[in-house]
Write a structure and sequence with these properties.
By secondary structure, this protein is an alpha/beta fold. The chain contains eight helices and ten strands.
């Protein structure tokens, strides 16, 4: 944890259907990190927290992010998401132009060697700020992120000892930061669920299987589904939630 906790500005606080939703901004140096936290209404101490990393062209308010957050909250966990490096509220258009966000992410991935470390720092700062809350202090922490959520999330999980379980996938040993992924994958030692789309047109299954093999955790499992990169089925989200709840809920084996 950083010597000085980052500043979290809470922007609103709404509740409905048993879910409390709070938008926030984290101020980290010159960076402002927009995010949202979902918790069960009346959450008690040591509530487990899952950090959700969206994919390229998405944002923290993408339908699948919100749906997964609600699924986790419904099972007693909390969830939080932030916007990626050129996504959502980090953009002037608020992330409405998904294609442009995707193209600018690909450009940054190729040309900005600091992007991964800056996003790892953003996520660590968010984690510092959130686990200082009474209801999250002392709870276990998980990660869910595929595609860009693994491009950035795997280095974060490798660097962050507070992550107790992670869902990764839709990514392989390829791309501009391949060397970084190769270096970090063996350092991921927490339990891992790895998701693959068998007909992925962006990350061929051979690359994905290579990444799965490189992950250092002795407790890892792979779920493969038919379809292209963007065709992750509902079953994958259900199994993700089940895996995370099973690893993070109070009393679950470590």
């Amino acid at each position: 944890m950083a010597d000085t906790l980052p500043a979290v500005r809470w922007l609103d606080d709404r509740s409905g259907d048993g879910i409390r939703e709070r938008r926030f901004e984290l101020v980290r140096g010159s960076r402002t990190v927009p995010g949202v936290l979902w918790t069960p209404v009346g959450a008690g101490p040591a509530t487990p927290l899952v950090l959700l990393g969206h994919g390229a062209s998405g944002h923290k308010g993408a339908d699948y992010v919100i749906d997964l957050a609600k699924r986790l909250v419904g099972q007693g966990l909390a969830a939080a998401a932030i916007d990626g490096p050129v996504h959502g509220d980090r953009r002037l258009d608020g992330g409405e132009n998904a294609q442009l966000a995707f193209l600018e992410f690909c450009q940054a991935w190729s040309s900005d060697p600091s992007m991964t470390d800056e996003m790892v720092g953003d996520w660590s700062g968010v984690l510092d700020g959130l686990v200082a809350l009474d209801e999250l202090r002392g709870g276990r922490v998980g990660w869910w992120g595929v595609s860009m959520g693994t491009i950035i999330g795997l280095p974060f999980v490798a660097a962050e000892p507070r992550i107790d379980a992670a869902v990764l996938g839709l990514m392989g040993l390829t791309g501009p930061t391949r060397d970084r992924i190769v270096e970090d994958a063996p350092r991921v030692e927490c339990p891992v669920l790895f998701l693959i789309q068998w007909d992925d047109e962006l990350f061929a299954r051979e690359w994905a299987l290579g990444l799965f093999d490189a992950i250092g955790s002795p407790d890892k499992r792979l779920h493969a589904h038919p379809g292209r990169h963007g065709d992750l089925p509902p079953e994958a989200f259900r199994s993700s939630a089940s895996f995370l709840v099973g690893r993070l809920a109070p009393g679950a084996p470590r």
